[in-house]
């Protein structure tokens, strides 16, 4: 939640610290210790989040033709426990954990993308279905459509047609989702409506099932624009490097 310099970083084989916050592997899952300032309204977020995966995958996908950007769905089916002191908040339920990394900035190679993840089977017992829908600067694209069971096994499924969704209300972020032929898709709730990013709850049909998915739309053209770059420090403070 705060951009920090190299001197604020501590890295070990079982953990990572950035300023006063950290994450470590405790043998059963990830434990996040959070102690951060909030923006733009001054405040604190302090507490602990635990993530217990049913399985950890070794499945890594490249997003671009040159192999400069990678995505790893680390733990698609997990149990999450939230215990915050500030604000006072307790929550537990189903969760998800993934990782992106690359050799060059995302905005150099992608104008935008959509991503969604949905539990499949009764109460998510059959794992998760994920669709990653990427547009590239060279006007090509890539769609990843995979199912991952609770043991971590990965299999592809046919890519459904793309369906346009209404743009986000405040910032008009374009949204689209993949939906099996004969199914219907709709935005049920918008969770985040930001200048370059929207997170939503979407009803759709994929992998042969009607599902409720967490959906994300990212506009890297917006992110790279001067006016958005000027807004970022008001949302995420930057400390001297």
Structure overview:
The structure is a single chain. The protein starts with 8 loop residues before the first strand and ends in a 6-residue tail after the last helix. It contains 3 helices and 17 strands. Helix content is about 5%, strand content about 55%. It has one domain. The protein is mainly beta.
Based on the model shown, name its key terms.
mainly beta, 54% strand, 7% helix, 8-stranded antiparallel β-sheet, 241 residues
Short synopsis of the structure:
The chain is mostly beta strands and 241 residues long. Helices cover 7% and strands 54% of the residues. The chain has one domain.
Mean pLDDT: 95
Structurally, how many domains make up the residues? 1
Helix content: under 10%
The shape, in one word, is globular
- How would you spell out the order of helices and strands? EEEEEEEEHEEEEEEEEEHH
Instruction: Pick out the low-confidence regions.
Output: none
**What is the first-to-last residue Cα distance?**
16 Å
Radius of gyration: 19 Å
Binned strand content:
over 45%
Number of strands: 17
Main sheet makeup = 8 strands, antiparallel
Helix/strand/pairing class, anyone? mainly beta
